[in-house]
Every structure is written in structure tokens, then in C-alpha cells.
């Protein structure tokens, strides 16, 4: 059971969220680790918040590992990503 959102699921899911596929050239890819995700709803929340950051073109979240791969048209500030993850209700792990 999901302890974070009480949705009753605990699936190991990878979700790809394509936001703007036209910005494939010259893109920046960074991978972050997010703690506290336990289900598909958690993945969706993180994907949505991080995907809302200006310049983000795709977000790939792996629930099992907590890895969040973010592709953006320009480099992102880590604190901007941290704020989005925290807005979703989770924590960015210090790497």
C-alpha cells in the first residue's frame, strides 16, 4: 500500500512524460534521485511537477530506483528541481 498518498497501490512503474519532442537537439540530460515515492501516483506527481519547469522537454521516472531523468533545452538549476520535487511532496536526495 502506498504510504505517501493512500492510493492503495505499490507498483514498480517507469513513466515517460514527453513534453516537447521538438527540442531534441542541444538538450541537457540530468539524473536525480528522489526519496519517498511508493506508487504510480507518486511517479505521476513528480513527473508533473518537474515537467512543469520551464525548458524541460521530458521526464523519465523509475519508481524502483527513485531515479528521475530530466531532459531540458537548457541546463537546469538543481534548486529549481528540488523545489518542484518538494512541491510534489517528496525529497531530492543529495548526490
Automatic annotation (TrEMBL):
Pfam families membership: HMA
Keywords of the record: Metal-binding
InterPro entries according to UniProt: Cu-bd (IPR000428), Heavy-metal-associated_CS (IPR017969), HMA_dom (IPR006121), HMA_dom_sf (IPR036163)
HMA domain segment(s): 28-93
Listed PROSITE patterns: HMA_1, HMA_2
Domain of life of the native organism: Bacteria
Protein name: HMA domain-containing protein
Organism whose genome encodes this protein: Kribbella sancticallisti
Amino acid at each position: 500500500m502506498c504510504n505517501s498518498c493512500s492510493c492503495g497501490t505499490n507498483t514498480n512503474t517507469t513513466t515517460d512524460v514527453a513534453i516537447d519532442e521538438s527540442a531534441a537537439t542541444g538538450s541537457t540530460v540530468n539524473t536525480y534521485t528522489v526519496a519517498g515515492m511508493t506508487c504510480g501516483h507518486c511517479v505521476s506527481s513528480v513527473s508533473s511537477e518537474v515537467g512543469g519547469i520551464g525548458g524541460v522537454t521530458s521526464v523519465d521516472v523509475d519508481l524502483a530506483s527513485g531515479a528521475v531523468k530530466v531532459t531540458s533545452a537548457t541546463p537546469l538549476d538543481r534548486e529549481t528541481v528540488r523545489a518542484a520535487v518538494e512541491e510534489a511532496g517528496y525529497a531530492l536526495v543529495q548526490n
